[in-house]
Amino acid sequence: MEVKQSSTTAGKPIRCRAAVARTAGEALTIEEVIVAPPKPYEVRIRIICTSLCQSDITFWKLKEPHGIFPRIFGHEAAGIVESVGEGIEEVTEGDIVIPTFLSDCGECVDCISKKSNQCSKYPFEISPWMHRDGTSRFTDLEGETLYHFAYVSSFSEYTVVDISHVTKIDPAMPPNKACLLSCGVSTGVGAAWRAANVEPGSTVVIFGLGAIGLGVAEGARLCGATRIIGVDVNPDKYEIGKKFGITDFVNSTSCANKSVSEVINGMTNGGADYCFECVGLTSLMEEAFACCRKGWGKTVILGLEKPGQQLSLNSLVVLHSGKTLFGTLFGGLKPKSDIPLLVKRYMDKVIENLT
């Protein structure tokens, strides 16, 4: 299919600025880079807003084999379609879009199923390349390849993203709010709404009140949870969390001689219906499981721990407790169908808060 190219830059390389990570853990440098035109089934996007996610920091610090440099990080963003490659029908130049690290091809068994949001045609990996041909669309002015991150690389004025990672949204959505639906807030809200399916009247515990944790609180509130307990090391998070539905707060550094799970079990008469770990520490994952109610409790892992870290659980407790522990990417949401729903709920003021 021949694509109508209306922009003056369509089909041409674009020279723009980007924040480039040259070495693990060292400061990013603002450089001029070259962004190639999109290939078939790709979209070149002008980034309007981007935000920083803890996952960017985690991988920015890592050395080989997981840390690959030089790289353009960033994966929470909103932007405008500048041009499209061949075969693109669902977006066109000028559309407002959200790129996501998780793909949604709409064709594979997982994307068609209501049970999964993990595309098997374009599976999620922390890849330095584009999905379809295993190459990069970025070079510096010397011609050196700059690697992608999480299929988005939004710390650049322009980026190229596969169409399976692009969702068109209502242009009335404020871009500084829309970019938060690209990862953190969607992950949190989705974890309560889709992944855990929090029931009305339930008790929820959230470990970590960052963007994802506050998103979980908002999602749990929308689902009708009556008690939402936030756990954090920063007491100021309680006042912030109240706006998102937090009803109780536990400062994990002020539990005297008790563990956090012991404190939570005492507060909830035996454990919470749902526990969400949103920090990315195996110790907190284990604590979340320990204060999840026996018989029916669900523990949901959202935080990203360093690759290779292991959970340690008592096998007898797992067998006898009847609890469930699972992880979820993007809160179980399907980007192309669920992000527009979240946008509508925000525009309709059903979702009252975005961090």
TrEMBL record:
Residue ranges constituting the Alcohol dehydrogenase-like C-terminal domain according to the UniProt record: 211-342
Cofactor requirement: Zn(2+)
Record has Chaperone as a keyword: no
Domain Alcohol dehydrogenase-like N-terminal per the UniProt entry, residue ranges: 40-169
PROSITE patterns in alphabetical order: ADH_ZINC
A single MF term (Gene Ontology): oxidoreductase activity
Annotated protein name in UniProt: Alcohol dehydrogenase-like 7
